[in-house]
Amino acid sequence: MNNPIKPAARLPSVLVVDDEVRSQEALRRTLDEEFEVFTASSAEDAWKILERETVQVLLCDQRMPGESGVSFLKRVREQWPDVVRIIISGYTDSEDIIAGINDAGIYQYLLKPWQPDNLLMAMRNAAELHRLQAENQRLSLELRTTGPVLKKRVEMKYERVKREFGLDGLTRAPDSPLNPVCDLIAQVAPFDLSVLISGESGTGKEMIARAIHYRSRRADKAFVVENCGALPDELLEAELFGYKRGAFTGAYEDRTGLFQQADGGTLFLDEIGETSPAFQVKLLRVLQEGEFRPLGSPRPVTVDVRVIAATNRDLETEVREGRFREDLYYRLAIVPIHVPPLRERPMDIPLLAERLLEASRRALGKDTDGFTAEALACLSAYRWPGNVRELQNAILRMLALATEPRLRAHLLAPRVLQAGAAGRPDAPLDALAAVGFSGTLQERVDALEARVLKETLIRLRWNKTRAANELGLSRVGLRAKLARFGLDGGKGGDDE
């Protein structure tokens, strides 16, 4: 008998505050698959929701009638300090937001127009921060009451984190192209050398950076992350270098920058290729001298930080074309590491899918017995242009739509099904695909026909009656074609 699927646990809660209905609905559509979303059109309405609902993350627009976003978040911080506060606006509001970042305790500033992937990543990180803050409060309480017992528990948790984010956390097969990358990590991690990680978006460059950190002598110190492509220069400078009280309007107290927060540990600068030449000059000085000057400070600050940078651009080309400083490139790329895309690692996909499924179970609070063999075959055949991130989203979709204990192939998006039916990566389902097949005209037509049959049957869960109706065939005609192409065994689907 099939095991029943467990009821879903409550998703992380988000309150979206935006007076524009279209923007509010766009944010809701982007978030509601992974979050419990509340919406409000004004600060007053949002306050009422906060009084009656438990909210973990607050995403607020800066420009609203009446009270501004920064002003509202200042009030929220006083009443609900545990709520993680994110503000969203355009470049034109940068000065107002910088001035209010400290007072309002703003966790992140998102620019319009926002990108769904960037927004989701920011919200996931904010929800995780809220969870970690709550856990930290609980551990602090236990520390005061249980002392040695908790110390042992923290040590065990630290070892688990090292395993999860070290080389053991990089899922790969025995013959994976990722294995040479892991060998290189093991060689360079113990030495304080700058590392430049390159690779397509979604390949797991941050995971590589964490693996380097947790294999280094800095493993017990901070690992700090900044996405350089998400902020304009003035905000990025304030984030990384900090500022002194009075440095600009609204700077009422000192703010410690990320370089100081990472002192003794590792600072990961993602999307380094998106920075401007002016900012690159300031970053180069920090790397060369080991010191920087916070905004408004008369004296430099010295830090001991290992910098790991990442980019999805070809920085050598960027240097040749004058968009990236040559001296900074060579300073960052003492050890270059390239992460192969997922399409070059098909042998890793089944293992990676199982690991991502575990994370998806926790995220959605929904249990499953795993994938069917047919589903894993389709996952392995697709090219995954969005790499690991796209694979993770596909698995989240499958789990959310599942009504049976096991995840079946029909839950996949059509483009993934088509690749699985073709038996080769990312093959388009159209007549032109036949041109790529070898053989006579009849052999090419047969190959295309077999592919269409297989994709239709997978999508319809091998229901031959529905497949015959969709394809305009009789059941007898369909069975004859399946026997001809060796597809008559079926996959256990309902034939009624």
Automatic annotation (TrEMBL):
UniProt superkingdom: Bacteria
Keyword match Hydrolase: no
CDD domains for the chain: AAA, REC_HupR
Modified positions (4-aspartylphosphate) in chain numbering: 61
Classification via InterPro entries: AAA+_ATPase, AAA_lid_NorR, CheY-like_superfamily, Homeodomain-like_sf, HTH_Fis, P-loop_NTPase, Sig_transdc_resp-reg_receiver, Sigma_54_int
SUPFAM superfamilies: CheY-like, Homeodomain-like, P-loop containing nucleoside triphosphate hydrolases
Coiled coil: none
Response regulatory domain ranges (all copies): 13-127
Keyword terms, alphabetized: ATP-binding, DNA-binding, Nucleotide-binding, Phosphoprotein, Transcription, Transcription regulation
Stretches assigned to the Sigma-54 factor interaction domain: 171-400
Annotated PROSITE patterns: RESPONSE_REGULATORY, SIGMA54_INTERACT_1, SIGMA54_INTERACT_2, SIGMA54_INTERACT_3, SIGMA54_INTERACT_4
PANTHER family: PTS-DEPENDENT DIHYDROXYACETONE KINASE OPERON REGULATORY PROTEIN-RELATED, TRANSCRIPTIONAL REGULATORY PROTEIN
Protein name: Hydrogenase transcriptional regulatory protein HoxA
